[in-house]
Amino acid sequence: MPRCFHPNEAELLHGVELVSTDLFDTLLLRTLRSERARIVAGERSFARKLAEQGLTVSEIWLVEARLEAQRLAYRALNMAAQDGEVALTDVIRRQIAMLGLPADLCGTRLAIEIAVEKEALRPNRPLAALLRHCRSEGRRVIAISDIGLPTSALETLVLHVHGEPLLDRIYSSAELGLTKRRGGLFHAVLAAEGMRATNALHIGDDLLADHRVPAALGLRTLHVPRRQARRRLSRLHGGVSELGRLVRKRRALTGGSLAAVEKPYAFGREVLGPIVAEFCLAIWLYVDEAAKRNDVALLFCARGGLGIRLAFEQVVTSLKLPFSVKRDNLMISRLVAARAAVMTRSAAALDELGREFRDDSFADVARALSGESHELPPAWNEPFAPARFFALLDSPAGDAVAAAIDRQNGLFRRHLVAASGGASRIILCDTGLYGSTQRLLAAGFPEFSCETVQFARCNYKGFSEDHFPRVVGLAVERNRYSAFAVRSTVLRYWQLIESLFEPAIPSVRVFEQDLSGDVACNAGEIAFGKVDLLAGNALLAGALAYIEGVGDGRVIMQDAARAWLRLRQAVTRPAEADLAALAIGERSVDFGRAGAVGDGGKLPDGPLSRLTSIRTQLWREGAIVRAFPHLRWPLLTAIEAFHALRGFSIGLHR
Questions:
Q1: Cα angle 403-405-411, degrees, rounded to a multiple of 5
Q2: pLDDT digits 0-9 by tens, 598-638
Q3: CA distance 426 to 470
Q4: How many other C-beta atoms can be found within 10 angstroms of the C-beta atom of residue 96?
Q5: CB-based contacts of 160-165 (< 8 A; 24+ apart in sequence)
Q6: To the nearest whole number, what is the mean pLDDT of the chain?
């Protein structure tokens, strides 16, 4: 077979004492059955096993839980600045914990995984013959696999497919915590085998992991790529399987639409509750994987993070999820983070300041950043121009301002160190969207390893996205609303999500050292349990009521799927009841400025003036219903059609 053919076997093996092979798509050839199809088949079999034990869980939600646990495990792994692999046993453990199933079912699900793999593999006989020949000549023959399966499972699969022992040993990236793609697994294997790289031959299908990386380390390599036609057919099979999964999920939700409610508490319980619970489950899945290989601190950012923490702790309690990661509330705001970036003279700080203070003066910026007033020369009263700010700050007149900013930044740094407890990996949790806090902190404190998980990620500001690899939007990651992506609905009325989680306390602006020597801020005591987060927040109270009564993740996923559809209807085509339920009132302005923003204000008189004012509203669809009650359906339909056409056009031009 050309797949493993080599024109001169003697030359290939000359001086080789160790022969290593990749497993999947090399020694174990896959059929055209895609990974998605194998997962669906495995969960269908698992559902039957559960039914035999009197546990009724639809394969639809088993698949959903498995995919979500797997997706977020890899996001957390890829965020880490180190080598590693996601272990399938951890994915299954989290899937079962989410669904409230007995923990001892992990072994049952792993056995099903192995059984499904057996059906989707066939032997690579020419390679097997080469390996047998090598062993007969006294060479050591091993396998090195970047896979989530444990070594025992890999040994079972090789024996099943080839019918007899072929290998002296198998090394799994999941068990060693190292991968071929970064080279660490090769180093570990060579050390364990007591071999030099120049005396080893590695065979595999992946151009990077099986050829370029080992070749750069000095190993001899034989690259045996999978045929492109087979790759494309497998992807096609995966697409068909995914389409079938989505159709089955949609059918399962048929007939279960949510009725309209006009009370914020009821809307919070029926619609936002499942969505918030799903978000909190995602936080747990992500952080649980991150904590496997790092000393992690999960810090909830004031203000929105305080509401998120309340919901998260309730989800962990209600679902009895194992979670021992250090967590705390963090006194922070974009203004606080901007100070850190200013002290390092980062351009990221100028972006944010220029956006927030475009109608203000240099003195206004100095007052916000320093937290105090200063006697400044007339030049500081000129309109703020970001390009000139650092020069003014570094001038003699700016010394006092810079010193005050430095004092504030130093107090915050003390607080950050205390809150994180010296953790090597700091995970910030916030509402979203752009991730300004992450960007500014990374610029101001490069010595800290920070990343951010948030409800949504969107570059609505049009700034650099260099920090986006360190920001995860757990519910949605899109730069604009799409009529074809239901979760992007929140981008049409983002202030609803902010209002849901943010308590009625000031944004963090200034720090001071209290009598006990601890760092305090103007927002008051924000430690967990110290702030009445439900005061005046019927939406969050309703969401918490849902979470308190939920029993397992299957119910959450099922309810959330319906809730997202109901939220889209309420936001993009609101009825009168939705206006009453979703009005957020006024909220204080962030970034050290006075004032408030909100919806539901009085609209101007006259149709033309009203139409013009729609653009300035936080919730434009809601404003249209209030301003033009008799024309709302044509206007709302036109807006939705515009977004649909824009999304279609963008897709065509990619």
A1: 105
A2: 665 566 666 777 777 777 778 888 888 887 888 888 888 88
A3: 11
A4: 23
A5: 160/118, 160/121, 161/28, 161/118, 161/121, 161/122, 161/123, 162/27, 162/123, 162/128
A6: 89
Cα 396–Cα 397–Cα 403 angle in degrees, nearest 5: 80
The set of residues, in sequence order, having a beta carbon less than 8 Å from that of 263 and lying 6+ positions away, is 538, 580, 581
Q: What pTM was computed for the model?
A: 0.91
Q: Reduced to 3 states, what is the DSSP secondary structure of residue 519?
A: strand
Candidates 116, 143, 171; CA nearest to 25 is 143
**Beta bridge mates, 141:** 19
Which residues lie closer than 8 Å to 382 by C-beta, 6 or more apart? 361, 362
Tokens matching residue 34: 């895609």
DSSP letter string over 362-406? HHHHHHHHHSS-----GGGGSBP-HHHHHHHHTSGGGHHHHHHHH
Copy the structure tokens of residue 649. 């056009």
Contact criterion met (CB below 8 Å) for 571 and 493: yes
Measured CA to CA, the distance from residue 152 to residue 148 in angstroms comes to: 12
Contact (Cβ atoms closer than 8 angstroms) between residue 451 and residue 470: yes
Q: Helices in 194-303 by DSSP H: which ranges? A: 213-216, 228-252, 264-267, 273-290
Residue 214 has φ and ψ, to the nearest 5°, of: -65, -35
Sign, CA torsion 370/373/375/379: positive
* Cα pseudo-dihedral 523, 527, 528, 533, rounded to 10: -10
Q: Say what the alpha-carbon torsion angle 308, 312, 315, 321 is, to the nearest 10 degrees.
A: 160
User: Over the stretch 103-140, which tens digit does the pLDDT of each residue have?
Assistant: 999 999 999 999 999 999 999 999 999 999 999 999 99
- Whether 386 and 353 have beta carbons less than 8 Å apart is answered as yes
In whole angstroms, how far apart are CA 605 and each of 273, 613, 628, 636?
37, 10, 12, 21
CA dist., res. 599 & res. 578, Å (int): 13
Residue type, 72: L
Q: To the nearest 10°, report the CA torsion of 619, 624, 627, 631.
A: -170
Rounded to the nearest 5°, which phi and psi values hold at 432?
Answer: 125, 180
What does 315-343 look like in DSSP terms, one character per residue? HHHHTT-----EEEEE---HHHHHHHHHH
- Does the structure show a pLDDT above 70 at 275? yes
Amino acid at 395: S
Distance separating alpha carbons of residues 151 and 143, to the nearest angstrom: 10
3-state secondary structure (DSSP) of residue 353: helix
pLDDT of residue 1: 37
Handedness of CA 488, 462, 435, 614 (dihedral sign): negative
Mind giving me the DSSP string for 124-149? -HHHHHHHHHHHHTT-EEEEEE-SSS
For the chain, how big is the Rg over CA atoms in Å? 29
Length of the chain: 654
225 residue type, one letter: P
Q: Residue 167 burial by CB count (10 A; 0-12/13-18/19+): exposed, middle or buried? A: buried
What long-range pairs does 624-631 form, CB within 8 A, spacing at least 24? 625/574, 625/575, 625/576, 625/579, 626/579, 626/600, 627/603
User: Tokens 């809150």 — which residue?
Assistant: 419
